[in-house]
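Appendix B. One record, verbatim.
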Amino acid sequence: MLLTHAYGHWRATCIPAVLLPHSLCRFTTANAPANRQMPIASVVRGNLKKNKEMEDEKKFYSQKGISIATYFGGPLAAGYLVKKNYETLGQPESGKKALIIGIISTILLFVGIFSIPKSIIDKIPSALIPLIYTGLIYLIVEKIHGETFRLHKEADGKFHSNWKATGIGAIGLFIILSVFAIAGLISFITVDNKIASKEFDSISYGIEMKKFLDNENKSLSVYKEFNTKSEEYIVKELKNGIVLWDENINIINKLNRLNNLPKRQLEQNFTLLNYCKLRIQQNELVIKAISEDTERYDSEIERLVKKTNQISIELKQKN
């Protein structure tokens, strides 16, 4: 009877234990101590606590904070803050896209502003444009993260301070202003270099002036032949002279288009244009006087001759 009782006790205690892996019969009893289950429960509770703490550590930039940053730093600041919110949600790729969109939107915004005529932009209140793009971005943030913010707030989740968002907006503004300042400096240097590289071409000026003087000598040579040549010849040469003076006018106009033409040359060219026109008038009157065989143009011809001679003397004195 004693053996039967002992065998029954062995079956009740050892056989169930044999079915447990890595268990030894002699160390196992039917009622395992409660403290054997404690480590597992402790780990589970620890994980739950850790998850809760991780949830509590999530901090978003609020819709209001993003709006304040956007007003100062434009879409660039908004793109950065939305990127940080996406990263908090574990969506870094969406965050990168948000930042890229913010950068592109900032560029397009300022290109659009600079394309507006100054007469119109002066009439627009300075705060209107920032208010417009801030309002648009507020609606976009509401659409993509509005529900997330509400659930986070209901769960007593934390948000970054609006002062921090404002600081990021100020940084965005500084970056934008710096970019435009650098771009303006580069543009100024480039234009300055282009101007410097286009120095006054004195050689070309000299070549064209030689053509001018050759034409002048040819056109005036006919006056030396008044007493030796026929009237037909004189009239023909005077007409050729008018053509040469017209060519000289074209030469002066060409010289006026030279880069960085000195003020002295500009003033001289203006005087030469007037000189050429007077010479043309003189030739036309002489032709009429010969053709009509009259002296009624003599006083006007004499006045033109005096004026052209005076100009010629003044130019020689300046040079």
